[in-house]
Amino acid sequence: MKMNVLQKNMATTAEHSNKTETLLNDNISITNASMSLLQTQMKAVTNANECGEGNPTYESGKVIFSSEILNDGNAFTPGTGEFLAPQPGLYYFSFHLLAGSSNTRSYCHLYKNGDSLNVYAYADGTTSSYDSGSMSAFITLKKGDVFHVGGCGGNPSISFDGSTTLTGALIKVDPV
C-alpha cells in the first residue's frame, strides 16, 4: 500500500514538473519575443533626423535644408528635402519656422506622398520683428512613403532664418 501511494505521488510530481516546464518554456518564448520587439523599437527610436544650421531654401515646392545635425539611418536627403520611411510605423515630425525678416509672413505645410496633411506652421512677421511658427504631428508611414515640408507661401516672399528646423523620428515600428 505504501508503494502505491509513493508511486501515485511520484506520478503527480512528474505531471506537475512537466506542466511547470511547459509554463517556463512559454514564458521564455514570450520574454524572447518581447525582447526582440523592444530591441526593434530601440533601434527605431535611434532612426532620427534633425536639419538646421544654415538658412534653408525653397525649391520645387519643398523646403531644402543645407545641413544636417543628425541623420541616423540616412532616411532624410537634405538635397531634396525628402524623408523616405525606411520601415512602416508611427513617426513624429516637428517643423519650426522663423520668418527671414521683419514685415514678412511665411507658412509651410506637411506633405505625405505629395498630398498635404492640412497641417501647417505660420509666422506673421508683420506684427513684430522675426516671428516664428511651428507644427508637430504624429504620422503613420509605410515603408517607402515620402514626407516633406512644402507648399510654402508668404508676403512679400518666402525666406527662412537659420533657426528654421525640421526634426523627425520613428517612434514605433508596425509589425509586418
UniProtKB/TrEMBL annotation:
Matching PROSITE patterns: C1Q
Q: Where is this protein primarily located?
A: secreted
Q: Which domain of life is it from?
A: Eukaryota
UniProt keyword terms in alphabetical order: Secreted, Signal
The yes or no answer to whether the keyword Chaperone is present is no
- UniProt-recorded name of the protein: C1QL4-like protein
Report the residue ranges that make up the C1q domain in this protein: 38-176
Where in the cell?
Answer: Secreted
What SUPFAM superfamilies does its record include? TNF-like
Q: What is the lineage of its organism?
A: Eukaryota, Metazoa, Spiralia, Lophotrochozoa, Mollusca
Q: Name one Pfam family in it.
A: C1q
